[in-house]
Amino acid sequence: MRPDQWVALADALLALESELRGLGLWSEVRPELERLSSTTPFCVDTLDFEQWLQWVFIPRMVTVINQRASLPVKCEIQPVAEVAFAPFGRRKLALLLVIAEVDRLTSLLAQSKPISQG
Question: CA nearest 27: which of 63, 52, 59, 57?
Answer without folding.
Answer: 52
